[in-house]
Amino acid sequence: MNTPSTPIQHLPVIIVGGGQAGLSVSYYLQEQSIEHLIFERKTLMHSWQSQRWDSFTLVTPNWQCNLPGHPYDGDEPMGFMKRDDIVAYLKRFADKLKPPVREGVTVNRLSVNADGSYEVFTSAGHYRCDQVVIASGGYQAPIIPRMAEKLPSTLFQMHSAQYKNPAQLPDGAVLVVGSGQSGAQIAEDLHLAGRKVILATGDAPRVARQYRGKDVVEWLDEMGYYNISVDQHPLREGVRDNTNHYVTGRDGGREIDLRRFATEGMELYGTMEDFDGENLLFRRNLAANLDHADSVYRNINSRIDTWINEQCIDAPLAKEYLPPWQPELERSKLKLADADIGCVLWCIGYRPDFAWLDTPVFNGMGHPQHRRGVSPQAGLYFIGLPWLHTWGSGRFSGVAKDAEFLAQQISAQLTAKKMGVEMV
Question: SUPFAM superfamilies per the record (predicted)?
Answer without folding.
Answer: FAD/NAD(P)-binding domain
